[in-house]
Amino acid sequence: MNSTAHPFHLPIGLAPDASSPEWLNKGDNAWQLTAATLVGLQSVPGLVILYGGGVKKKWAVNSAFMALYAFACVFFCWVTWGYRMAFGDHLLPFWGKANVALDQKFLLDPAFSGKFPAATMVYFQCVFAAITLVLIAGAVLGRMNFYAWMLFVPLWLTFSYTFVAFSIWCPKGFLFKKGLIDYSGGYVIHLSAGSAGYTAAYWVGPRLTKDRERFPPNNILLMLMGAGFMWMGWSGFNGGDPYSVGIDSSLAVLNTHVCTAASLLTWLALDIIFFGKASVIGAVQGMTTGLVCITPAAGIVQGWAAIIMGVCSGSIPWFTMMVVHKNVMLLQKVDDTMAILHTHAIAGSLGGILTGLFAEPKLNFLFFASYAEYVGLFYGFEMGRIGTGLRQIGIQLLGIVFVVCVNVLSTSIICLLIKLLLPLRMSDEDMELGDEAAHGEEAYAIWGTAGDRRETSWYPENDLPVSQKSADARQVEMT
Which of 143, 207, 318, 475 is the most exposed place for a label (fewest CB within 10 A)? Predict the structure, then answer.
């Protein structure tokens, strides 16, 4: 063997003695990895602790674990087959060919967009896919059979998420080619999660009646911590989608926080005006709808438009949740634990429509590198291109219909298939116990009763002879 031969494949433009290829932009790559990690933190620990703190005490472990499991399962499936189905070679107008994304030759070559390797893109897109499944979990907390959830996650990722992601985000997808604007996932992630979560909640069935009537958070401060991870992590969520550290990324981050603040304050004001209380839970919901609404438009609208979008996202989902939902029996029949329909499906649809109104042609040029093709309707009037603006609104509406139809259909089929193998919903007896029945564990066992302390394996003193136990342990057993 020639001693000078390099023993492994080298990416294009990389010499054996070089530290990086010519095409690599280290700043862009560093930001993309950072942005991906910020998005990952939104799920773990963000939504893990938000769910864990936002449900009844008896469901804290199960709710947090559903989120953690989904995150891990998606990572495995994504690199094994999911990524190439969403961003790979064309198979159908809405689907790519399944293939692994672990080969060194593939991972170290340039990504399909951006000046960084495909390995970075796989990671970045993976955390987006993962948070979508975690959000769906929010709709079925407090009753879904955990083993059914274990099957649901890989099936839905494969036969629903990849359809929508390929159609809208992959350059070969049919909605991408038509010019749909979804800057960072208002459609692919939030509208998908909201419509799929609501559909899954229908098939799984409701919580116990007493849980539906009263389901207070067991730890609001913990829930706020999770919400904080969500809000700050959104800097990576929207700031990473230009695939560079350019001016578009800066605008996207600023617009994200402006819209979210306006939305939270609007929701809070409505709660005070109509209910006489400044609700912490309401503020978190207003925060969430603001984050979701700005997502499809983050880097392609001006600051004043971001404020208007925040006011809309803090008021319209508030109205659908607090007024419409409470007066429409059909909506009440579906038990959507975390109101994913309102905070993600409705807020995501709202964001998509407002994007069609406020998308600024010059900012679209920064993002799409195509001027006067992506034009919001308001700018269409200003530019004398009304037809282009109307077309953009039409495409945005078409995207909403497509995403909802795909997710309702695919989620229904997946739930019915799983139902043939095992129950989707836990038994009423198990739901009375919650975490103890599902996992044999409880969130706050250290503060439990004497019986809890004797049974838990967390206390090694339980296995000692009585004479060797501490006075505290002996006193517990006596009581």
Answer: 475
Q: Are residues 460 and 380 in the same domain?
A: no
Q: Which two tokens stand for residue 274?
A: 């109509």
In a domain, 83, yes or no: yes
Kindly give, in sequence order, each residue whose CB lies less than 8 Å from that of residue 319, ignoring residues fewer than 6 positions away: none
Tokens of 86: 């969403």
Q: Which domain holds residue 161?
A: 26-431
Same domain membership, residue 451 and residue 304: no
Element holding 284 (H helix, E strand): helix 280-294
Is the pLDDT at 458 greater than 90, yes or no? no
Instruction: State the number of CA atoms in the 13 A half-sphere of 417 facing the CB.
Output: 12
Closest CA to 317 of 140, 190, 135, 217: 190
Residue 112: the pLDDT is 86
Predicted local confidence at residue 15, as pLDDT = 52
- Residues in a beta bridge with 117: 110
Considering the domain architecture, whether residues 390 and 462 belong to the same structural domain is answered as no
Say yes or no to pLDDT of 468 above 60. Answer: no
Distance CA 354, CA 304 (A): 13
Mean pLDDT (the chain, rounded): 89
Domain membership flag for residue 5: no
Residues 396 and 459 in one domain: no
Q: How far is residue 243 CA from its own chain's centroid? A: 19
Q: What is the pTM for the complete model shown?
A: 0.88
CA geometry: angle at 346 spanning 86 and 208, to 5°?
95
